[in-house]
Amino acid sequence: MPATSALAYTADIAEATRPIYERVKRVIPAVEWPFHAPLVHEINRLKRERNAVILAHNYQTPEIFHGVADIVGDSLALAAKATQTDADVIVLAGVHFMAETAKLLNPAKTVLIPDTGAGCSLAESITAADVRLLRERYPGVPVVAYVNTSAEVKAEVDICCTSGNAVEVVESLGTPRVIMLPDEYLAKYVATQTSVEIIAWKGHCEVHERFTGDEIREFRGRFDELVVIAHPECPPDVLEAADFVGSTARMVDFVADRRPPRVLMVTECSMSDNVAAASPETEFVRPCNLCPHMKKITLANILESLRTLEPQVSIAPEVAERARRSVERMLAVKPR
Q: Annotated binding site for [4Fe-4S] cluster: which residue ranges?
């Protein structure tokens, strides 16, 4: 069990964490902060002692995202920035495939995932054997894997992509047809943005697939001046009902640049909280779907992971070399 019981909320900790709470007070009630603050304070102290950095995905809760993270963003940002740190230890506050990606790009560093059960429905929807069968069925057709896949799957494909660079990656291959896996809805969205024929796999994100177009239209009827922005992992009827479709990074930029008075962000709950903390002039309508895997990462297990330097992420060398090549090819694709 994490040894957190000895951590008390003192006047010194209240003062030391006051600047952090100022950033999150719109989304974390004051009554909750005394429970978070001692953990936040101890994690930030232990990071310095361990020469560690915490990488946090946009779907992490605000006390993690704003309280202890050093690097934040979507999958592409975390993958790119993971290569730039000189820390000895990387703690991935996200899901397992993200920790694997960080390890692929930092093979000499200690990479920790605070809960090995933090998985992903997309990553679990396809195996390396499935990719080999697809290659037999479509000989010569290049395979693009969403980063939401295991290292074993990445090792079998030609190149990786994220929701933010999927179109650029597909077009960089210079072929008339591409296999894109595992997210069917992302593949269908990419197909509307390019002339390349997309052969899709039928994997879905268990968070985004629950949204519906009818739900979006219902919210429009209840809220005036509502701007709807949606992630391309959502079903096609949701994307058709949205005003803007983009990756998590592009959704964040949309709110920062456009400053809509009222926005519905069709993605995981905590992302709305994290953007709302930095956008006080925007009202956020929340049709909330939580990712059960992301929520397995907590302040308590981040602290325990830093204390014990466990659980560590390891990848078989013969898999890592091939998977790393697919990720590095993605990072080399120039954005539009």
A: 120, 205, 291
